[in-house]
From TrEMBL:
Transmembrane segments: none annotated. Homotrimer. Residues 3-167 form the Cobalamin adenosyltransferase-like domain. It catalyses: 2 cob(II)alamin + reduced [electron-transfer flavoprotein] + 2 ATP = 2 adenosylcob(III)alamin + 2 triphosphate + oxidized [electron-transfer flavoprotein] + 3 H(+); 2 cob(II)yrinate a,c diamide + reduced [electron-transfer flavoprotein] + 2 ATP = 2 adenosylcob(III)yrinate a,c-diamide + 2 triphosphate + oxidized [electron-transfer flavoprotein] + 3 H(+). It comes from the Bacteria. The keyword ATP-binding applies. One of its GO terms (biological process) is cobalamin biosynthetic process. Keywords: ATP-binding, Cobalamin biosynthesis, Nucleotide-binding, Transferase. Belongs to the Cob(I)alamin adenosyltransferase family. This is Corrinoid adenosyltransferase. Its EC number is 2.5.1.17.
């Protein structure tokens, strides 16, 4: 099988039900989700040992769900019966976050992305996820979308923040506080 088709040489690409320009908002939205999925794969590749097995499994599931997000956005015309992303997926992210947050030290100030390479990569996932969410919001102004994709990406960026901190905590590396920040967060317990 050849990977190249030459059908996009004139700046058009196929979506489910038709063709659109490669710079269409729809392609930009699901393309940014694809970029995020690549960074998630990079984070998975950095997880060594039993200490991160639960996170590795979460992220592998998230990679499949990111494909679902892209699929929900890749239709010329959508119908709710074909949506893959749903509220239960968002609720599960919340449950995972609640559990991981228990492992993290109290947060009083903003933190700088970093610490371990894994944590820094998860922060990259967070920021790319926020960009994907912005692209989906913009797309939603122009066409009907599955709003659960927007909800999922919003919650997923929070998840990446929490697990970036968990990655540092499990590696006994402190988060780096933003020194110019006042105390902006209350006690978590």
């Amino acid at each position: 099988m050849k990977v190249y088709t030459r059908t996009g040489d004139e700046g058009q690409t196929s979506v489910i039900g038709g063709r659109v320009s490669k710079d269409d908002l729809q392609v930009e939205a699901y393309g940014t989700i694809d970029e995020l999925n690549s960074y998630v794969g990079q984070a998975v590749s950095l997880m060594e040992g039993e200490a991160f097995e639960d996170l590795r499994q979460n992220l592998l599931e998230i990679q499949h769900e990111l494909f679902d997000c892209g699929s929900d956005l890749a239709f010329v015309k959508l119908s709710e019966s074909r949506y893959k992303v749903n509220a239960e997926m968002v609720e599960r992210l919340e449950q995972w976050m609640d559990a991981y947050e228990e492992e993290n030290p109290e947060l009083e100030r903003f933190i700088l992305p970093g610490g371990t390479l894994l944590s820094a990569t998860l922060h990259v996932c967070r920021t790319v996820c926020r960009r994907a969410e912005r692209r989906v919001v913009t797309l939603g102004h122009d066409k009907e979308i599955n709003s659960e994709v927007r909800h999922y990406l919003n919650r997923l960026s929070d998840y990446f923040f929490v697990v970036a901190r968990t990655a540092n905590a499990r590696s006994n590396v402190q988060d780096i506080e933003y020194v110019r920040s006042k105390k902006v967060f209350g006690n978590k317990k």
